[in-house]
Design goal:
By secondary structure, the protein is mainly beta. The protein has one domain (1-87). 0% of the residues lie in helices and 29% in strands. It contains no helices and six strands. Strands 1-6-5-4-3-2 form a six-stranded mixed sheet, with no helix packed on it. A hairpin with an 8-residue loop joins strand 3 (36-40) and strand 4.
Amino acid sequence: MRLTEESRMGDSVETRGDDRVDLAVRDANNDGKPDVWVVDTDGDGKPDLFQFDTDGDGEVDVTIVDRTQDGTPDEVVDGDGGLPPQP
């Protein structure tokens, strides 16, 4: 795999685990809706999934996966990567 893969909208991404623990959810533009999600998928307390709402509609527009947890994206996809935020 290349360091960063560009995938089509709707593609699923592989993460370190099957869980979803939101470590941080933020409203970066003060519109009352979350637009940044930082997620731990394997229960080690470290983020490996980062999701962003770039157009302010409250939906995930970009998903970045850092499976090695080294600060370098392993995969970048348009959309939620099959991992929508929990309500």
